[in-house]
Amino acid sequence: MSTNDEDAEADSSGHCSTPDSDGEVAEEIAIVSFERKMETAEAIREGIEDRYEAIEILEYHGDVFDEHWGEYDCFVGLMASGIAMRKTAHLLDDKWDDPAIVVVDEELTWAIPITGGHHGANQVAGDLASLGAIPAMTTASEVADKQGVEARAKAMDAHVVNGDSTVQTNLAVLDDELGPVARLDGPKAVLVGDDVTVLKRNGADGCVIGTGSVSGASADSFLAAWWTALERTEYDLDDVEFVATATRKEDETGLLEAARELDLGVVVFDKETLLANEGPTPSRSKELIGWPGVSEAAAIAGGRERELVLEKIGYENEVTVAIGR
């Protein structure tokens, strides 16, 4: 094999499986476990394997990280954090290329991202919460309970093209100065600065579920409403890019639970964005609180074509849905 071929193979073996991606999403995971903890390792794999392309279990030995570095998006170390840190410190090179590392104890009490929080570790730690582990996230946006640009990319089924820019844009997130993701369709040539994060779509164009609700609407109501709406269109669940709603609904428990059940990201839009994309159906909320109807405006704002496929429908006086593209 030539040197160029070897370089190409080395590049392709890196953890970023999406072209041009800076690896904000983990898809292939290795659980590294001591032999005596294999039962717990199997429980972890069984508990989250439906959310990832591949999960393998590697038995721990002194060189296990050296031997498999670059083969996986994320290592889950079923071990003390000190062991994982000492055994990987010499391998760390670049935050955009290094695999993520999460450590978890045998009792599944804590899931601690050590490296690559915004590049898969927070994602995996969050999924381990379904097994009872508490995600101990220390990245600034998560600590502040705000959606960083990497999280926004994941929610929109996109990836970050220019990773270095996220230093500035995530600082803007912390200061509440970033605003919603601007959508630009081409063909166009765009000149951006170092403080502009560029997101690129992962898949083909689909549809966006715009949704609103009364406070406290159940996950079952959201799911039933979304399915009802999709059945009135030519789209299916596989065509849904994400769920869109208003910032004032971003903590709605039922909405978030429903989105997780369908493995969909949630994108929120502020009042100004929704007003600029107001739908055709009159809404009392504009008269009462100054917000336009959330479902139609969110579906329009999130869609590539900025158009509605299905105007607002209601479900059980709890949830409203519109479909955009």
Automatic annotation (TrEMBL):
Keywords, in A-Z order: Hydrolase
Name of the top EC class for this enzyme: hydrolase
Compositional bias ranges of the Acidic residues kind: 1-10
UniProt-recorded name of the protein: Cobalt-precorrin 5A hydrolase
Stretches of the chain forming a coiled coil according to its record: none
CobE/GbiG C-terminal domain boundaries: 208-323
GO BP field: cobalamin biosynthetic process
EC number: 3.7.1.12
